[in-house]
Amino acid sequence: MKYPLEWLKEYVPIKISTEKLAERMTAAGFEVESIEDTPAGIVFDVEVTPNRADCLSIVGMAREIAAFTGQPMQPKKNAQIPKDKPPLESLVRAASKKDTAIKIKLEDKDLCPRYIGQLFENIEIKPSPEWMQKRINACGTRAINNIVDITNYVLYEYGQPLHAFDYAKIADQTIHVRNANKNEKILALDELSYTLDADRLVIADTEKTLAIAGVMGGIGCETTESTTTLLLEAACFERIQVRRTSRALGLASESSYRFERGLDARGVWIAAQRAAQLIEELAGGNLVAVKEAGKKIAQRKSLSVSTAALNGWLGTDLKTREVQQALKAVGCEAIAKTKDILTVTPPSYRPDIVQAVDCYEEVARIIGYENIPSTIPEVALATEPIACDVLSQTLEKGGEPSPMHAQLTSLKCKVASLGLNETMNWALLPEESLTRIGLSKGMAIPLANPLSQDQAYLRPNLLIGLLSAVRRNLAHGAEGLRLFEVGSVFNKESKPAERQTLGLAIAGTWQRDWLGHSEASFIVLKGLIENLVQRLVKQPLELEPRPLSWALQGESVAVKIAGRTVGVLAQVDPQVLASGDIETPVWFAELDVPSLCAVNSCEQKITAPAVYPPVKRDLSILIDNSTTYADLLDAINSVVDAETVSVNLMDRYAGKKLPQGKYSITFNLAYRAADRTLTAEEAETHHQKIVSHLQDKFGAQLRG
Amino acid sequence: MDPLAELDQLQTEALSAISHAQSADQLEQERVRWLGRKSRIIEMMKLIPTLPPESRGPFGQRANQFKKAVEQSLAEQKSGLAQTPTKSHLDVTLPGQSFHSGTLHPITQTLGTILSLFTSMGFEVADGPEMEFEYYNFDGLNIPKDHPSRESFDTFFVDYASPNPKQGRMILRSHTSPVQVRVLEKHEPPLRIVVPGRVYRRDALDPGHSFMFHQVEGLMVDKKTRFSDLKGILDYFLRQLFGPETKTRFRPHYFPFTEPSAEIDIASHLKGKSSFAQKEWLEIMGCGMVHPNVLQAAGYDPKEYQGFAFGMGVERITMLRHGIQDIRSFFESDVRFLEQF
Predict the structure, then answer these.
(1) Is residue B289 within 8 Å of B306, Cβ to Cβ?
(2) Could you tell me which CATH class the domain B106-129+174-338 is placed in?
(3) Over A273-293, what HEC string results?
(4) Residues A358, A288 share a domain
């Protein structure tokens, strides 16, 4: 809210400089965002937290300034604060009309604990005086006429919204505060038409809707140039009611802003009298009738505040007397009951003070946070360990427990150590990004209230984000990309719906310098995954063909560990890439993070390195294209077990120099025994076994 | 030419060539040239049977002399070479082989720094889901329905059937504080935890705002932890993070889940480094004493336990540390940006 300094000074003497005042306000919890010089003088723009509706007014802020500067509230003559509640009779000076001139019917007193109607006659509508216009302008409202300006002036001055009705336009002189009829329509003062639900509260006469209670008045009963008789509403509406209405209609006003933060029901009378005083002064009106409806406003309950408990909470060493002083400064009644205990009654304008801790905060604010010491707690060295399965309570049970943060970090470090750049991509995506990669949007989880259609779905995978990252970097002239991301993906059909996932994407040049050059490929990405799985899970990787909507046929596999699918690996279909403006081939893999982190490295047993030297033999053969590497490996190990022979692929060649339908492959085979040095003859026996098996089984031809 | 005379000439040439050999390789080439299978001496010796018988003996002797002389010369040159150091002619100014080292995202790195400062003080790292129940994000934190402070957490609702409707609808968590409630529900104090995580708010993208960002949340609850301890621990943390000269300011604020609540500013010695580092004081985190209602909602007697909670934005801290101007650069995956970390 904006506070003109001169207006504040009408209520509290301010003896410090503007800058110093701003500093003190900030230190008291009212952050001054700017200080402006306006036609109404210096104006402070202050962020008022939602718990302090009482300070959304000049008087409220003046009270705060009085509290933390130690000055008394001293209203100037023209700004005397009216009494809480005067006898009705004393208000109606020209009691020419009986109070039957206004009837107020409250349907639900909980939703409207207080409604005061004041009737004025002989109103002369004209512009308000310049000083008033300047002040309400400075607060952010434009001047309209003296009556409307007075309601706004009092709104800013006391924080109490008011509404002025042209009495002549109210049927049967009766104000109904009632629930709206279903689909009841109102044309509000913002010139928009609103359709109301039955649980909205309206102000109405017997014929028509006059206002949306606490939010905005309607067109048709407002004051105009011809208004001579005026009904001024000063009411208190229940805050949740106002908030729901304002949210449902998407209609906020200075009035709803204050009501939904909770207003002091006792403040209604004060504002009503202040408005009456100004109307008589500035619009020539006579107050002729006053009517009040509502319920009895309960007295504030008192709280018991212990100085010892307060010191134990704040870490201070305050005396009961100091606590009492601080609480009195913010308007509380504080009576010392014992040496330690104060009986505290907060003022009616502080509905936020309900517990002893609220008083602790007030005391801390008044003595200043800077005056609370800084201490280092003395505590046990460690607390009970927090097991990861309990911590990562996923939404629904299912799958591996989420990994601990340290495991995630370790995973990221391992991937980065393989030369990949970690990225973080947007987790909210447009619908068309899903359909582009051939996913049905039914499996993705949409937002119920997206900010824009570009962010309408939670990402169901990391592919979409990484592809965008690839595209942007290629556009910047990158020749090759090697990216990864670790993050949550969301999928309607999986349990739990949110999974931690690792995505890897490589594209274009893998390695290039003056010594050589290699391109990204399926084999490169497979090598990365093999390395990761080897280091993390210590189990062999199995691949199984798996068609995917976005993948190139034949280069698309499921990744399995110990028989369980943990992810996919594939070349992205060039057509999918083309639709995303990518011409460079891209390979992508996605792996389930909990599965990668499920192995406890403490339980890993190591094998001692071999002691005896191996005997090495090369084997070069010509073989049919239909025979895979895995076929050959299986065949080798079927005659000589894997502990005796380790197989290294040295070369694979397929080309025009070879007979049609064949390729050549060269292995380096290392034979070894665990308990002795293998003789050349023993190695030769193993080697021949392998050679003849490959010849028999696949028709392999020895080369060179 | 007379074979003997030819041998004399050959020997002169050979010894001269050998004496000029500069390396073992060259020496080997000389050996092959003068004594190898295709050398002149071998050719000449093959011609011995064609010589007149009386010339055969002297020629044979002379040929052997030649071989000995050449071998001796080779040996001498070899030992001579062994004493002079070998020299490589590599152009050492060539660029080294290029290695592509990977990088960790700046947010990951800042998170790592923050978490290690707290774990060194005995805090444990906890986490929770991004797709969360309304209850944990709000109600359990003393933010009832229709409370205006829900507005400051402008929240995304998710179109996904709540697995537990009692805990409300599903949302994208708008802060990491829900994990406080989850941990309190499962673990009795004493507790010291820090919670890193991604959060979402309905904010339009601009250089200072993003609908997706990261926070670190902290919670310490036992029987006697006080507001002054909160000040002490966060003072220490901020001086570790931003340097020993860092000045901090605790300023009253309002959070529904803490009482008293504070925002912490640091004096901007980083002024000018980042677009929002223009003010004298920079808001860096929020904190306060855990509200008794939060402890009560998690099933504890608030008279028995007390403690503090705090939260900070990881992007903001990273931007300050590295002079980054635009929050969007964290999520645009430009490798020219990422490779600077």
Answers:
(1) yes
(2) alpha beta
(3) HHHHHHHHHHCCCEEEEEEEE
(4) no
Distance CA A521, CA B137 (A): 44
Determine the Cα–Cα distance for residues A523 and A664; give it in Å rounded to an integer.
18
Specify the length of chain B in residues: 341
A257: tokens are 């802003």
pLDDT tens string B214-236: 999 999 999 999 999 999 999 99
- What DSSP designation does B93 have? T
Q: Which residues contact B79 (CB under 8 A, 6 or more apart)?
A: none
Domain membership flag for residue A388:
no
CATH number at residue A73: 3.30.56.10
Bin A581: left if φ > 0, else alpha if -120 < ψ < 50, else beta.
Answer: left
Of B193, B232, B335, the CB nearest to A481: B335
CA–CA dist A322, A368 (Å, integer)? 13
Residue A406, Cβ neighbours under 10 Å: how many?
13
* Integer Cα distance of A328 and A343 in angstroms: 12
CA trace torsion B11, B17, B20, B23 (10° rounding):
-110
Instruction: Tell whether A420 is within 8 A of chain B (Cβ).
Output: yes
Query: Which of A318, A339, A368 represents a domain boundary (last residue)?
Result: A368
Let me know if A109 is exposed, middle or buried by CB neighbors in 10 A (0-12, 13-18, 19+).
middle
B187 contacts A422? CB cut-off 8 A: no
Contact list, A395 vs chain B (CB under 8 Å): 129, 131, 133, 163, 170
Which domain covers residue A525, as residue numbers? 405-600
Answer whether A298 touches B (CB < 8 Å).
no
In terms of phi and psi (left: phi > 0; alpha: psi -120 to 50; beta: otherwise), the region of A127 is beta
Tokens 């309408």 belong to A456
| Best residue of B117, B119, B127 to probe chain A, by most A CBs closer than 10 Å | B127
- The reply to whether A410 and A532 lie within a common domain is yes
* Span between the terminal Cα atoms of chain A, in Å: 90
Considering only alpha carbons, which residue of chain B is nearest residue A407? B125
What CATH number corresponds to the domain at position A581? 3.30.930.10
Pairing between β-strand A174-179 and β-strand A103-106 as defined by DSSP bridges: parallel
State whether B149 and A355 contact (CB < 8 Å): no
Pairing mode of beta strands A303-306, A341-345: antiparallel
Q: Which residues of B touch A473 (CB under 8 A)?
A: 333-335
CB contact under 8 A, B159 and A448: yes
- Phi first, then psi: give them for residue A166, nearest 5 degrees: -75, 110
pLDDT tens sequence across B19-49: 888 888 888 888 888 988 888 888 888 888 8
What pLDDT, in 10s, does the model give residues B320-340?
889 899 999 999 999 999 999
State how far the Cα of B41 lies from the Cα of B49, in Å rounded to an integer.
Answer: 14
Whether residues B335 and A419 touch (CB distance < 8 A) is answered with no
Q: Tell me the per-residue pLDDT of A194-206, one tens digit each, with 9 for 90 and over.
A: 999 888 999 999 8
What strand order describes the sheet that includes B258-267?
B124-125, B191-200, B212-222, B306-313, B281-290, B258-267, B248-253
Mean pLDDT of B250-274: 82
Give me the phi and psi of B290, to 5 degrees please: -55, 130
Asked if B192's CB is within 8 angstroms of A412's CB, the reply is no
Q: In what order do the strands lie in the sheet with A209-212?
A: A103-106, A174-179, A201-204, A209-212, A216-217
CA–CA dist A24, A69 (Å, integer): 8
Q: Which amino acid is at A337?
A: K
Check which CATH number belongs to the domain holding A692 and give it: 3.30.70.380
- A370/B contact by beta carbon, under 8 A: yes
Q: Distance between CA A217 and CA A238 in Å, rounded?
A: 17
| Residues of chain B positioned with their CB less than 8 A from the CB of A25 | none
